[in-house]
Amino acid sequence: MEMLDDRIYLTPLDNEADKVYECYFCDSAIYEGEDCYRVDNLIYFEDCINKHFKIIAEKPDMEGYLADLEYHDTK
Ligand SMILES: [Zn+2]
Fold first, then answer.
1. What does the pLDDT profile of the chain (75 residues) look like in tens digits?
2. Distance 22 CA to ligand 1 centre (A)
3. How far is the CA of 37 from the centre of ligand 1 (A)?
4. CB contact burial 22-58 (16+ within 10 A = b; e otherwise)
């Protein structure tokens, strides 16, 4: 099976509709026109960006937050 076909390289450069991104989170291909989000030049599916930011986000430290408020109030 011959995989290298010269015709592949003759695809017009302005064929933006076939442009493919790769989801930074799950490595799946994202085609132009699909719902996706760009953050710092990284592309995510909508579902993946939610998962990714839930993973990297810290849960709010409510006790520390309230202590900070008290600290600033009494300053
Ligand atoms: Zn993904």
1. 555 666 655 555 555 556 689 999 999 999 888 889 998 889 999 999 999 989 888 887 888 888 888 877 655
2. 8
3. 10
4. ebbbeeeebeeeeebeeeeeebbbeebbeebeeeeee
Instruction: Tell how far the Cα of 68 is from the centroid of ligand 1, in angstroms.
Output: 37
Tell how far the Cα of 33 is from the centroid of ligand 1, in angstroms: 15
Two structure tokens written together for 64: 């520390």
Centre of ligand 1 from the C-alpha of residue 43, in Å: 8
Alpha carbon of 7 to ligand 1 centroid (Å): 30
Q: What is the pTM assigned to this prediction?
A: 0.51
**Domains (range + CATH), the chain:** 12-74 (3.30.40)
